[in-house]
Please model this.
Amino acid sequence: MVGSTRGRLRLQCFAGLLGVFLLLLAAPAMAASPTLPADYQDGDLIAFSGTPHLYIVSGGKVRWLADTRAASQQTINWGRRHEVDIGQLEGWSSDGTLGDPILSFPLLREDPPPAGETCCPIHLVKQETGQAQPGLSWIRNIQDVGLFGITEQNYGQFVVGSAGFQASHGHDVRRLPRSDLAALTTAPPSSPPIAANTDDAARIGSWPPVANDHITYSVSTQWHTPGIDLFLPLTHQSVVASHRRIIPERPKCTFKNPHYPPYGVTTVCDTQHEVFLWVTALSETAYAGDDLDSMLRRTLSRWDDVESVSVGAEDHSGNSPGQLVAQASPASVAGVPARSVEYRVDVRQTGPTLELWVRDILFKRGDVFWLVEFASASHTEFIDQRRHIDAILASINLRYATDVPTDSPPAPSPPPIEGPKIDAWPPMANAHITFAFPGGWRRADSKPERLLAGQSVVATYSRTEGTGSRCLVVTVGDRLECRLEQEISIWIAALRAEEYATDTTESLLLKAVERWDKASDMSLKSRPHDIAAAAQSLTVDHIMGRAAEYHVEIRREPRLFREFAEMRVRSVVVQRGNVFWLIELAAFGARAFDDLKAHLDSVLSSVSFHY
Model:
């Protein structure tokens, strides 16, 4: 009975969340600057050893040429051809050099699939020069789709469903000739195919698994991290990461809240839909003897174990969990077999029944069952977001302790620390470091919400701006309003170089960025390594340092709803002798951050070290 009550409360909270106004800032992700070798020119061809696929250099990007019909529209230097290996293409895909593909037709996602095939094959619609009609070439390895230049951002532009293709181009998909497209890769990089059986001896090494350490994947900045708590978790189920996405394109609404003070206040809101994604793990030890089908049955049955909740097929046919498992589609994630099923959950409550649409993708490697779950209370958004989930699944890589060679050479001893040293710890402002702040800044006692191990805050300065973009809900008469304020702080901190003996300014900057991503109520909007790769060099008191700018999303949990606030941060790391200095600017709101970066530059230019 306790479990039933807990599940019912979580689902009721979810229903309430769907109608709540949340203010979110949209900001572009920072990415590494794309680079090509100096001798590559626009129009040059790029070929990959062992494959028939060709790419062209166009506008500083590398773009896939899908067929001769598409190539005929390009200016090509046929005499200039570069032979490279597939690893170079993967590098270009990671750093942004890989551009949009050049196609005769968009790629085709065949849904529903042909009889006997897994949902849903993606085909190159290929029409060579002189051919009367196109043919379908099945892209067997989903990893190739990404290496052809298809990303989550451009998926909707370059991939269409069967009905949309026929409506736009007039070809009946069922009547087009078919073949298999030559593979670009034989397996997803860094994750060889592994059979999901008892012979798979891969071991995670520690529990629970950790995002970016044991599993990596790509999500766009439109997905906010962390999301919300998992609905009805299984016993011993660990949430590795959670995400949520706001679909804001909806009409305005008004409602009166009868449940919480101020009672009866009319609130103007955006009727935003939210979709949710969880990446979770279950230990093989806790579920010894289970396979993919039996574990998927447990996943589905957990809904039926809760009072006022039932699970069934999307089309309201009322299938049981066992029948849904039998209908699950085989798939592949990170090179291992997977099972995928979509279904509907009915939550009976006071008033209309809440319908929740769910997609579960379950796969197993070694001693871990991985369960990726996607949910939406809008069936339209559930369908529309399928392509985003497919792109995320295609980007997953698994990293296990047993993947690391056991005969790796020992790490070299760190070099001795050279240069001047501070004998007393911690360093002190005006004694070991001096600086000057512009007018309007005041000395404060606050510290960053997350500190690195051994980090000592030497000085904090703050200021308050009168306008901004952080919304605080207040009651004014009979309505709710947002009042705007901004907090701006600059922290000057020090870390012992002896405690970070193997670090450089670059690696310590990465650690400074990563610390925000390790908190349960905070997350970065870009991957830490991407942020560090985009860092810039600068000098502080004639010493070379590194600086990075990034976005941190902070989740709070007040009584009525979760509040999300976005903080902009600039971190600067410089080393002198036995001290790493970490100087940071943080502000809520892009305008304040951009306006006050010049103040931080002024402070940095005034810094002088005294050892």
User: Anything to note?
Assistant: The longest strand covers residues 456-476.
